[in-house]
Specification:
The structure holds two protein chains of two kinds. Chain A is an alpha+beta fold. Chain A has helices at 4-37, 60-63, 148-156, 212-248, 257-263, 270-280; strands at residues 46-51, 54-55, 67-69, 72-76, 89-91, 106-115, 125-130, 141-143, 171-182, 192-199. In chain A, helix 1 (4-37) packs antiparallel against helix 4 (212-248) and helix 1 packs across helix 6 (270-280). Classes of the chains: A alpha+beta, B mainly beta. At the A-B interface, helix 1, strand 2, helix 2, strand 8 and helix 3 of A face helix 1, helix 2, strand 16, strand 22 and helix 5 of B.
């Protein structure tokens, strides 16, 4: 029988992870407000203002690559817009796969990142990376035992981790799935890889909804919605806080909560460990 | 009507859809594992009923679901029986074996390990234990059979193996596998030696085809596998490369497997590398419950508050307001049209693609379409799906079939050459070519063949095509399919009338000596067959000196006719691509060379006789040494020289015993032309609607075309054909459309005719009123009787022959 302290800690850990997913929603609503007002709420290393959509290739040169990312504009840490990226960016994602070995019936996962240009004011760099098993390790691949529908759902709901950021200030704009039916870098003519994209872009705009119909009907909603959702999320966060507080104060901890977890520290799930430190100043 | 800012609305809706997915997934429901409400319910039930909503329950002194290496066969794991709580019930899961073998395509060292993760999916609990699934035998079952053929086997394979079944009234079998064709189950050898028998003579029919087979469902643990990696430790608890497990699975164990070629469970210390990950809950009657009564009182109250806040105020998290706002915006846009929300957004016109991404894009034209996540949000909130486009057809991209008459060319031979002298954009890969003939009656089907352009160096290639001639051919069309995996786009490389010859040429002449070229004209006689599509020549050149500095100078090569009276070069036919010294002085690795190398030089010409002259000269002498062409010491009057500035017959001097090393080549593709056509003209979006609806064919408006360059409309450097700015917008041809639609797994084929002259905005319903579908798997288009044809009989396809297959708004 698993110890009840560990069982309940794992349940609360999952609850807090779900709360984190709801917090993503808060950032999305904030992004919508910034997009509709054209007003950034904070100064960030990089803001996606508009564009960088996955596009159809428009030239034969682009068509010879696997992915085309369209035009777009970003805002840098100074609060100014970067130069507009007028060029399309082409990427080849299968070149991220290991060379000289055959991969068949495999799923690989990755992210496309936007990294601020070293020269402030220039368009950002777009880089792709595969999910690794551990930082600095090799790629995490799995055989296709799960059907595509299940994998899609896992990609959508963040059960597949993001690939490691190329730089600390990089911004994830897409997740992607490589459904590798066959790949070997030595036999590119036999390549059979399906690529699926999951759009993570949150455009934060720069000019707002100047159109009077949009401004009248949508902007007001967006501003109200962001405030209402933040208020709602605060309430839920307080409720979860109360649950965790009551859990800490349960009478049955033996000999007491802190001593119990001193003895079972290795079994404390990571997210709950962080939560306890952040919200209750309890270091496990 | 006010302008519609489609790009902003598309972005707004896309982000709203993403918010819906994130929030709904976070909040979830009482029955969606991995969500906040599910977790709260789990805690709440533990406090009240003492059982989890979904979890492993330890019913005895020992835990269930213990994983060990199977003692009879170490390539299997034995998972002991266990109990799972599910919605207040306890499900008993029988002991089972799970194979550790996984067929990896690559070869891995014996020290490599792969992770295996065993879990119990929520879906297994949802499938009621003991539920009976029925099918029938698809073939007679005979005495001694080891395989039993059943209808719809794929459905029952999904239930998981082994499968307990009864054939007929009471013949008990256990299936533990299926044949390669996935048409028959194999009987578990543990049951009567793995054969069907009732004691009759081998081969006698025991059960007729059509006899009922009942499967008894038993929930099972499942396994996921990672790819082998090199690791320094076999500690199963610290291994970082396990496959990802969905949050809807209960974890049972993580296992490390070593030596992928001959797998066995790894050892860690003295133990097998098996790490049990199951979380064992006590049964409801346990004396040591997760929450004591005192604890339950404290925690249950706060859990119920959180639950009710999540549920009762869920509308505050909903994006329903976003849809309402969009609805109001939609209404405000319309002065008088009175279209519904779905009608309005489902009838937006096609416009030139802007590359900011506002909808469904097809070869430079794009139509507004909501994202899939917004569709999900719309459906979850309104119970209806928004308009879905399943397919787009563009007549201007429909190169084939036009009117199909006659037979395809009888043969198509392909060769691939390294592009040493001529720039090419064809890289390594398999290229598929098709060649059709256009006669006065129309276009024939194409003959297809593939060629592998491959070398150990990462060079570019030129591909050669030679095909059998077709009687009455006015010209030929050549198509190429990209070497990009999965891309079904087929490009037409040729314009009308460009390629009129066909057939095979002569094998040419093999040389061994070198003849120096100069800035004067030198001519070599060559032979081909008549009516041959001479696409170019392969010949051999070298620079005798190293360190040639004037590398931009070039060898100029021209084709001349033969003067029948004098046997000398007569008049200029055309120019082959020149070959710069820079290409001659370096080998394919970019290193300096003085050796002869093969060069391919391109020309498009249909021969009208069998004798020609290749005339060569240097634009300048090399700075050192000479430039030589390879020749043989054979031939009579096959070589001619002149110092005169004008190479007319009178100025040539014929000589014997010098023949050009050469090979006449058929049509050459070097990737720099074409990209004009998509053969079928159909783009399938792959959409699947959340709400099955009746389908329609819609003739959409096209309000904005890509900007023209010269005589063609283009997107970037890719031309778009079939459009004239003076065209009327009605459809130009009668189209017979066949749509393969699906509802669930059931496919239905529907047909509809789009009359010639149909106006834009017309909607033609598919099927009958009660036929609803959720997806489309194929669309085929055939020309009807009323067609607009060109003088040569080929159909004049227009961009206005465009339609979509979509849900009825």
């Amino acid at each position: 029988m698993t110890d009840k302290g560990i069982v309940t800690a794992n349940l609360l850990n999952e609850l807090i992870l779900n709360l984190d997913k709801m917090t993503i929603g808060e950032d999305i609503f904030l992004g919508l407000e910034e997009f509709s007002l054209g007003l950034p709420a904070a100064s960030r290393e990089i803001d996606l203002c508009w564009g960088f959509a996955k596009s159809e290739p428009s030239t034969t040169a682009l068509a010879s690559h696997e992915v085309t990312i369209g035009k777009g504009v970003t805002r840098n840490s100074t609060g100014d817009l970067d130069s507009v990226q007028f060029d399309f960016t082409s990427l080849d994602l299968t070149t991220l796969l290991p060379s000289a070995i055959t991969l068949k019936n495999i799923y690989a996962f990755g992210s496309i990142y936007m990294t601020p240009n070293a020269t402030v004011g220039n368009p950002p760099d777009l880089e792709s990376a595969l999910v690794k098993g551990v930082s600095g390790g090799v790629n995490l691949f799995m055989t296709n035992d799960l059907n595509l529908e299940t994998i899609f759902n896992m990609m959508q709901v963040e059960e597949v981790p993001a690939a490691e950021k190329p730089e600390s200030n990089s911004l994830e704009i897409y997740k992607f799935l490589l459904n590798i039916n066959y790949y070997n870098s030595l036999s590119p003519e036999l390549k059979d890889v399906e690529i699926y994209f999951f759009d993570k872009r949150i455009p934060r705009g720069w000019g707002g909804f100047a159109d009077e119909f949009m401004a009248t009907n949508i902007t007001s909603y967006v501003v109200f919605k962001k405030e209402d959702y933040t208020d709602y999320l605060d309430t839920i966060q307080q409720s979860v806080y109360n649950i965790v507080k009551n859990w800490i104060n349960l009478r049955s901890w033996s000999p007491n909560f802190l001593d119990y977890w001193d003895a079972n520290s290795a079994s404390m799930p990571d997210r709950l460990r962080d939560y306890l430190e952040l919200e209750f100043s309890l270091i496990i | 009507m006010a302008d519609v800012n489609e790009e902003f609305i598309a972005e707004y809706a896309r982000v709203v859809g993403n918010a819906h997915i994130a929030i709904e997934d976070g909040i979830g429901s009482l029955t969606t594992p991995g969500s906040a409400l599910f977790n709260l319910n789990q805690l709440s039930l533990l406090a009240t009923t003492k059982l989890p909503a979904f979890g492993v329950v330890q019913t005895g002194a020992n835990t269930g679901f213990n994983v060990t290496v199977d003692s009879s066969d170490p390539t299997f794991l034995r998972v002991s029986s266990g109990t799972v709580a599910y919605n207040g019930n306890l499900i008993n899961v029988s002991s089972q074996r799970i194979s550790i073998k996984k067929a990896f395509a690559g070869s891995y060292s014996s020290s490599y390990v792969y992770g295996m993760r065993i879990g119990f999916p929520y879906s297994e609990a949802q499938n009621t234990a003991g539920q009976i699934y029925s099918t029938v035998l698809s073939q007679d079952a005979k005495e001694g059979d080891t395989e039993i053929y059943v209808e719809n086997i794929a459905t029952y394979i999904e239930l998981g193996l082994p499968l307990t079944a009864y054939i007929g009234v009471n013949t008990y079998v256990v299936f533990d596998g299926y044949n390669a064709a996935k048409t028959a189950f194999t009987i578990d050898p543990a049951i009567n030696g793995g054969v069907l028998s009732n004691g009759s003579t081998t081969g006698d029919i025991i059960f007729d085809s059509g006899t009922r087979v009942n499967f008894i469902y038993e929930p099972k643990a499942k396994a996921l596998y990672g790819l082998p990696v090199s690791t320094i430790s076999n500690d199963p608890e610290l291994f970082n490369y396990y496959p990802l497990m969905p949050s809807s699975w209960l974890p049972i164990a993580d296992v490390l497997i070593v030596n992928p070629g001959a797998p066995e469970v790894a050892t860690f210390g003295l133990s097998d590398a098996i790490f049990r990950t199951a979380m064992d809950y006590p049964p409801a009657n346990s004396t040591i419950p997760i929450f004591t009564n005192d604890d339950a009182k404290i925690i249950a109250a706060s859990i119920n508050v959180a639950k009710s806040e999540l549920i009762n105020n869920k509308n505050r998290a909903s994006v329903s307001d976003a849809i309402t706002a969009l609805d109001q915006y939609t209404t405000a846009l319309q002065d008088e049209s009175g279209l519904t929300f779905r009608e309005f957004w489902g009838t937006r016109p096609f416009k030139a693609t802007t590359y900011f991404g506002k909808g469904t894009s097809f070869q430079g034209l794009e139509r507004f379409e909501f994202s899939n996540n917004f569709s999900k949000a719309y459906f979850d909130i309104t119970g209806q799906d928004i308009q879905r486009t399943f397919a787009i057809f563009r007549g201007d991209l429909y190169a084939f079939p036009t009117t199909i008459y006659g037979n395809a060319p009888a043969s198509l031979a392909l060769n691939s050459y390294k592009a040493l002298g001529t720039a090419s954009t064809l890289t390594r890969g398999t290229y598929t070519y098709g060649v059709s003939a256009v006669t006065t009656s129309g276009e024939t089907p194409a003959v297809y063949n593939s060629v592998l352009s491959f070398d150990t160096t990462n060079s570019n290639y030129i591909n050669e095509l030679q095909w059998g001639s077709v009687a009455g051919a006015l010209f030929y069309h050549i198509y190429r399919k990209s070497n990009i995996s999965g891309e079904q786009t087929e490009y037409r490389l040729t314009s009308i009338g460009q390629v009129t010859g066909s057939g095979t040429g002569t094998t040419g002449i093999v040389g061994y000596a070198g003849t120096s070229l100069s800035t004067n004209f030198t001519a070599y006689k060559i032979s081909t067959t008549n009516n041959f599509q001479l696409g170019g020549l392969q010949l051999r050149l070298r620079a005798t000196g190293t360190g040639v500095t004037n590398s931009t100078a070039e060898v100029q090569i021209k084709l001349y006719s033969n003067d029948g009276a004098t046997g000398k070069p007569n008049s200029l036919i055309g120019s082959f691509d020149s070959i710069p010294f820079s290409k001659i002085i370096l080998d394919s690795n970019g290193d300096a060379t003085t050796a002869f190398q093969n060069f391919v030089t391109k020309l498009d010409y249909k021969t009208t006789s069998t004798t020609f002259w290749v005339v060569m000269k240097l634009s300048a002498q090399p700075s050192t040494g000479s430039i030589q062409v390879q020749t043989s010491a054979n031939g009579t009057n096959a070589y001619a020289t002149t110092t005169a500035p004008s190479p007319i017959p009178a100025n040539w001097t014929l000589a014997n015993s010098v023949s050009l090393h050469h090979k006449p080549l058929g049509f050459l593709d070097y990737g720099r032309s074409g990209s004009s056509s998509v053969r079928r003209g159909v783009y399938l979006t792959g959409s699947k609607t959340y709400e099955p609806r009746r389908l329609r064919i819609y003739i959409p408006d096209i309000s904005d075309f890509p900007a023209p360059t010269g005589s063609s409309f283009t997107r970037g450097d890719i031309p778009i054909y079939g459009l004239s700015s003076t065209d009327s917008t009605e459809t130009k041809n009668e189209l017979i459309v066949t749509v393969v639609a699906k509802l669930g797994d059931t496919e239905t084929t529907l047909t509809q005719t789009i009359p010639q002259g149909t106006t834009r905005g017309t909607s033609l319903l598919l099927g009958t009123e009660d036929q609803i579908f959720d997806s489309v798997t194929d669309v085929q288009v055939a020309p009807g009787a009323n067609l607009q044809t060109q003088q040569n009989g080929a159909i004049y396809w227009s961009i206005y022959d465009m339609f979509t297959v979509e849900t009825q708004p």
